[in-house]
Amino acid sequence: MENLLRLGDDALILGHRLSEWCGHAPTLEVDLALANIGLDLLGQAQFFLGLAGDADALAYRRDAFEFKNCLLVEQPNGDFARTIARQFFFSAWQEILFRHLAAGDDKNIAAIAAKAGKEVTYHARFAAEWLVRLGDGTEESRRRMTDGMDWCWRFVDELFADDNASLRPEWDARVDAVLAEAGLPRPAKVRGITGGRDGKHTEHLGHILADMQFLQRAYPDAVW
Amino acid sequence: MSNALPLWEVFVRTKNGLSHRHVGSVHAAGPRMAVEAARDVYTRRMEGVSLWVVPSDAITASDPGEAESLFEPAADKVYRHPTFYVVPDNIKHI
After folding, report:
1. A33 in contact with chain B, both atoms CB, cutoff 8 A
2. B11 lies in some domain
3. Please, which of A5, A160, A217, A221 could form a disulfide with A68 given CB 3.0 to 4.6 Å?
4. Which parts of chain A register pLDDT below 50?
């Protein structure tokens, strides 16, 4: 149950964050790409939360401390480069995680992970492509990409807490390869901030929920 | 930003056996990014099984000013249409 909430909440919150780009992305192509990724994540959230219970109730009627998503996904979008940094760190991790889950014992989770794995492979590739493009682009794009990664870096350790520690070497190798291609140094080591998995969130989650849950809170059981 | 990125023409094959058809264009920095942008913009609703992207400046187009000499001569050559045959009733798909 706890694990389902973590998986579902990660996808739900990052999906919501990406939806904030809709109509604001730098180009039409990127606007659609981010919206597509957000919708993929929303689909994942529906599956995982549906296994945990009533997906709608879990999404719309829990308070911030009951959410078990990692802190990385609730961080504000910032500029496009920071959004790309967040996406790459998360999707590269999710890709490895889902490959393990797809081969795991829990048949339901394995089925979702196998289906979503294809989507996530694309998310990671899309983000990596832009990370290289911005890192290896102009002076400004390089600076923004570096700043974006620095912002996100302190939330990375949480991804590998508890049972997920074994995923780290493969993730590190992937990140190093992409950073090398982008000509960017690895962000300086920082003390990782954790707490999301236990419901201890940054101030940003409350603001997301205020947006996301308003309608169901104001008009319970409203239907389209 | 769009102005800085080259334009690519997008062709989608809707299913195996059919040919790729032009559907529109995207801005992208390189061929790979163009394929990904085309995937996001033009195949969101299962429109395709394969994509081509071609740099727009690689296309040589006919000159609209020459349209008269290029296309009008065909207008009075009705005999080039296979409309002078009687097709038997049981022949379908023509």
Report:
1. yes
2. yes
3. A5
4. none
| Residue B14 domain boundaries | 2-59
* Mode of pairing for the β-strands spanning B7-13 and B21-27: antiparallel
The reply to whether B81 falls in a domain is: no
B4 pLDDT above the threshold of 80: no
Tell me: pLDDT of B94 over 70: no
DSSP string, B32-64: HHHHHHHHHHH-TTS--SEEEEEEGGG-----G
Closest chain A residue by Cα to residue B45: A36
What are the tens digits of pLDDT across the range B13-60?
998 889 999 999 999 989 999 999 999 999 988 889 999 999 999 999
Would the CB atoms of A29 and B40 count as touching at under 8 Å?
yes
Nearest-by-Cβ selection for B1 from A26, A32, A126: A26
Q: Is the ipTM of this complex over 0.85?
A: no
Among A27, A33, A129, the residue with its CB nearest the CB of B2 is A27
Taking 3-state DSSP, the helix, strand and coil percentages for chain A, each rounded to the nearest 5, stand at 75, 0, 25
Is A133 in Cβ contact with B2 (below 8 Å)?
no
| Cα nearest neighbour of A133 on chain B | B29
Sketch out chain A's domains with CATH numbers: 2-218 (1.20.1260.10)
> Does A21 contact B at CB distance below 8 Å?
no
CA distances to A66, A160, A164 from A156, rounded to whole Å, are 21, 8, 12
Total count of residues recorded for chain B: 94
| Cβ neighbours, 10 Å, residue B28 | 23
Task: Return the structure tokens found at A24.
Answer: 């604001």
Asked whether the beta carbons of residue B44 and residue A129 sit closer than 8 angstroms, the reply is: no
